[in-house]
Structure formats: C-alpha cells, structure tokens
Amino acid sequence: VTSRFGKRLFTIFFKTYSEKLWGISCTDLDSDFAAQRIKKLSLFEAVKNALFQSKGNKHATLVDQFAYPFGGTGSVYENMQQLISARGGRVYLNTGVERVNTHLGTARSLTLENGETREYDHIVSTMPISILLERLPEVPAVIVEQAKKLTFRNTILVYLRVDRPDLFTDQWLYVHDPSVEVGRVTNFRNWLPSVYGDSSSSILCLEYWCNFDDPLWSQEDDHLIETASNEIVRTGLVEEGEVKAGHVVRLPRCYTVYFKGYREVMKPVESYLNTVEGLHAIGRYGSYKYNNQDHSILMGLRVAENILDGTQHDLWAINTDYEVYQESSVITKTGLQPKDT
Predict the structure, then answer these.
(1) How many structural domains comprise the chain?
(2) Over 90: is that where the pLDDT of 193 sits?
C-alpha cells in the first residue's frame, strides 16, 4: 500500500481503519489482504477516477454502483430455502453440530448437539475451520495446533434510529479517526426506498470489531447503544438528541485474520482436510478466506458440481481475487438485466 500510495495516504486512509478491523498492527498483516482489496489499483488510477467520475473504470475497488435485493440480502437465502424445500429438501435452523463422524477416512454422518446422529453421502461445512477440526475424530495433534492459530474477529452491529431523513448521501462510510472505536457506518436509508417506506427517520448501523476476550464483546446492549450514540454525534453526522432508539447484534468469528504467514499455517490444514473423503470445507469461515458473499456462493455452486458432476474444481483457490467467472447480469438504472452472450 505504501509503495503504491505513499506513506502519508497509507497512514490516513489505511492504517487506522485496518488496525481497528483486525486488532493487530499493519506490520503483522499479510500482504494478501491489501493485494486482494486494492488489486491493481494505483494512485494514478484513483486520481483519474476522481476526476473523470469512474468513466471507463474497471477496478472493483472503485465501483460507484451495486445491485441490492429489494428484500435485503436475507431474501437471497430465504429464496434458496424455498427452492430447497420445493425440491424435497429440508433446512434445519438452530441445529448445532457436535461431531463430524468418519468411517475409514470418509465423512459419513453428523452428531447433533441434541445427541441425534444423521447420515449423509457428502458433508459441506461452512463452520469456522478451526472448529471443524476440533469436531473431527482422530485429527493429528499437529494439525489441531495449526488450526488453533487461525484466528477470527468478532463484529458488533449497533443499529440506531435517527430522527432525520437526510443525514449524508453515502451508503456507507469508513471511519479512520482513532479517537472513536466505530470502524464503519452504514446508512440504510440510502440503499432502497423500500427499506424505509413512509418513515421520516434513518437507520444507521455502526460496526465495531473485537476479540472474545476484549471488554467490548461482553458489554451490555444499553452501554453499546450509548457508546454508538455518543460516537456518531462526535463524528458530526448526527446532532445531539436525534438518536431515538438502538438495537445490538453480535456476530462471532466474522472476519478471518490474514496475519503474516497465515498461508504456511493453512497448507497442512488444507492438505489434511483433502484426505477426508466426502467432506468439503467452503465459505469465508469454512475455508478461511476473506471472501465476499458472491465468492462464497460461487464456492457452493462449485462444490455442488464436484459432487454431482464429478468435476475437480479447486475450492481452496476461490477467493476475492478469483476472476475466472462471469457475472450473469449487468447493473442498469432500472435494475439487473441479463448479460448478452
């Protein structure tokens, strides 16, 4: 980052935010993180984008529009559940997995937290990879120890209802200021009119990141809402007294931490999991990849092809820099349109 943008811009726009997110110094972060997120972007390209307002821009880092489902991103997974149910499948929610059982080197069944055991032809796991290895039998101790080195960051989402419709025009803002703990602010009123309907208020989401042993993770909801309310006022985005209500959501193990040397830690873990027939580890948590939703869904499609069609897609190779696939639609002013073939 420093070589492309200079130390000054690195300090202002990358360092503080990244250290809030990952909880470690940038000197301890692997270069993979920056390489995937800024790809081939340079200072020249960023300046050109600012001057010409994205005309001809091909860098994903500088996109100025995105597609968002009318019912929110949750509707994508609700539709998946409906399709599965329509085809005779079942989706079990709040059903914890206690053990992944193997027989002669092949994953055969799951033992659930309620003691029930269910058999399957294939098991596709998206649980954090370190937990998966803890719940497999007879994993070599050296592999378990390697997996324990793979760390995750937790996210706390603090939603605030603000009694004003016109707070700011951006969909989200990254907060680099080290004097506040919040790292990102999302304004859902700027996403879709269907999100807010007839309401004259705005819903903001303030993101905080921490580890399990950080005091922030165990704070009471009321205290978190008070902290978020005070910090959003300090940013100048909201006036004193405009926050009317709040709600807290905690998301454990949200981000895979690309600490320096993590690839060397992952190699034996990947190699071992490849020896367990019928077991497929995918997704951000399951494969320890800093993937977006689209890449994680792509992993699901690819593993289905491997299972059903006998293809040999390398699922470990799919990441945010995975560009060997084509979007099926393009974004227009009226919504998504099928891409011409």
Answers:
(1) 3
(2) no
Q: Which candidate, 125, 136, 131, 137, places its Cα nearest to that of 150?
A: 131
- The DSSP line for 82-99 is HHHHHTT-----S--EEE
CA dihedral 312, 317, 322, 323 (to 10 degrees): -30
CA–CA separation, 277 and 255 (whole Å): 27
**Alpha-carbon distance 98 to 82, whole Å?**
27
Residue 118 lies in a domain: yes
Give pTM, 2 decimals.
Answer: 0.86
Other CB atoms within 10 Å distance of the CB of residue 179: 9
Report the alpha-carbon distance of residue 97 to residue 114 in Å, rounded: 9
What's the full length of the chain, in residues? 341
Start-to-end Cα distance in the chain: 37
> Which pLDDT score, from 0 to 100, does residue 49 have?
53
CB 132 within 8 A of CB 214: no
Strands (E), 167-237: 172-174, 184-187, 202-210
- The whole domain housing 269 covers 89-150+258-317
- pLDDT tens-digit profile of 59-91? 555 566 778 888 888 999 999 999 999 999 999
